[in-house]
């Protein structure tokens, strides 16, 4: 059952009315459901029961400390892509031994810190990174656990900006050259080979591309075994899509079952790096209509959230559901472009939406739990939104709304 339900015409998250949160915290405001995030993580964990596994939540999808904390308490590991994300995991009480470090541009300082904390492994994305990691590890007198991120040249059939497993993408090591890089890794004294990794993109809505990628990885795993290089784990990345509109991605259980079947009886621990499928539909962005404006061509609803708060519609022309929080609050029924105050024509949350609106209407933008707040900015000198986590009948402000003082901090006028 969804954590978001209507009762007497009012949208609730768990047992809390969204109007109550907007009234107390103002808008724009992100609101997340603890139960929905936990249920999604549990779906991964239970589908993986009976096989060695680690679910490493992709921190980039929603990196609020409270979110990381609740997932860590339920046994999640974490997939990170920066030293900053590593410090978030530590601050949230996550276990560094369950952290995998992805990303094409890791820096020596980030590697050193990750080695100091004893992370589980580095997903190395290039031969040059492999050499640097070896030298950083040796300089610190430790051995770095290594997994190579292979690029299988598989089309994820998703938006080109979030497709990462094609040869032309910057990610991973060309799978045709991966054996040579493994051989090189085996020679380096500062490294220990532990696994193989792959992540082909985000918002995938069928299992086919995942299975193609896994098939390519398993070919390599078998070739490595023939050379005496055995791996402890296979990391198939994240990427499972969610339903924003009418997509029909496989359920978490179906997706895991398909991948488990593909891996078969091989003695490999399965690692996953899900982001969106854990948090996207556990969150909404609350926004208030400020003005209604009519032109010859369009009806505009000017709301107080903008592309700086939620950039997915502007960046990917992503579709997210927008609904009024209170039914029957009245207003003008029509087809509206829901747009923000930012000075860009791309500043829209949704276009051509059938809604009944008046100034003051409270709207919920659904599917905002992933790649929402984390991608927000201060463009147009707009303080970033507050974040609230609902837990049953209670709710907690897990990030305060930014103030203008926050925005000016660190800036200086000329000295004279
Ligand atoms: C290496 C890696 N793993 C996992 C993820 C999470 O992807 P998703 O949110 O689609 O599950 C990403 C997405 O950015 C990624 O780059
Ligand atoms: N970096 C991710 C995709 C991030 C997608 C996200 N930014 C979105 O809003 O859809 C990847 O490697 O697949």
UniProtKB/TrEMBL annotation:
It comes from the Bacteria. The active site is at 343 (proton donor). Substrate binds at residues 276, 312, 316, 344, 371. It catalyses: meso-2,6-diaminopimelate + H(+) = L-lysine + CO2. Residues 36-280 form the Orn/DAP/Arg decarboxylase 2 N-terminal domain. GO terms for biological process: lysine biosynthetic process via diaminopimelate. Pyridoxal 5'-phosphate binds at residues 239, 273-276, 371. Its EC number is 4.1.1.20. Pfam families: Orn_Arg_deC_N, Orn_DAP_Arg_deC. Belongs to the Orn/Lys/Arg decarboxylase class-II family. LysA subfamily. This is Diaminopimelate decarboxylase. It comes from Pseudohaliea rubra DSM 19751.
């Amino acid at each position: 059952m969804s954590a978001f339900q209507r009762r007497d015409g009012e949208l609730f998250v768990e047992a809390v009315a969204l109007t109550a949160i907007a009234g107390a915290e103002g808008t724009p405001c992100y609101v997340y459901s603890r139960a929905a995030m936990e249920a999604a993580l549990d779906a991964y964990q239970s589908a993986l029961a009976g096989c060695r596994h680690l679910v490493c939540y992709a921190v980039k999808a929603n990196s609020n400390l409270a979110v990381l904390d609740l997932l860590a308490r339920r046994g999640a590991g974490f997939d990170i892509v920066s030293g900053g994300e590593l410090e978030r995991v530590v601050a949230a009480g996550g276990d560094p031994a369950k952290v995998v470090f992805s990303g094409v541009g890791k820096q020596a300082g980030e590697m050193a810190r990750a080695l100091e904390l004893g992370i589980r492994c580095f997903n190395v994305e290039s031969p040059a990174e492999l050499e640097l990691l070896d030298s950083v590890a040796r300089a610190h007198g430790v051995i770095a656990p290594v997994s190579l991120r292979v690029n299988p040249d598989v089309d994820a059939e998703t938006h080109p900006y979030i497709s990462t497993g094609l040869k032309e993408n910057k990610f991973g090591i060309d799978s045709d050259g991966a054996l040579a890089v493994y051989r090189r890794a085996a020679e380096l004294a500062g490294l220990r080979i532990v696994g193989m990794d792959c992540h082909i993109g985000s918002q995938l809505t069928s299992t086919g591309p995942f299975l193609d990628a896994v098939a390519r990885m398993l070919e390599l795993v078998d070739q490595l075994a023939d050379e005496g290089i055995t791996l402890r784990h296979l990391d198939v990345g994240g990427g499972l899509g969610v339903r924003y509109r009418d997509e029909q991605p496989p359920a978490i259980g179906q997706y895991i079952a398909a991948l488990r079947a593909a891996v078969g009886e091989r003695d490999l621990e399965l690692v996953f790096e899900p982001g969106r499928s854990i948090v996207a539909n556990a969150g909404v962005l609350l926004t208030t209509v400020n003005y209604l404006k009519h032109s010859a061509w369009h009806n505009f609803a000017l709301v107080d959230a903008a592309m700086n708060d939620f950039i997915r519609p502007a960046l990917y022309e992503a579709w997210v559901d927008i609904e009024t929080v209170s039914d029957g609050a009245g207003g003008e029924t029509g087809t509206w472009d829901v747009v923000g105050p930012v000075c860009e024509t791309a500043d829209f949350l949704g276009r051509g939406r059938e809604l009944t609106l008046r100034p003051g209407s409270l709207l919920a933008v659904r599917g905002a739990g992933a790649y929402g707040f984390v991608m927000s900015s201060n463009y147009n000198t707009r303080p970033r939104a507050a974040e609230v986590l609902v837990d049953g009948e209670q709710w907690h402000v897990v990030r305060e709304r930014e103030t203008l003082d926050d925005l000016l901090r660190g800036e200086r006028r000329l000295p004279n």
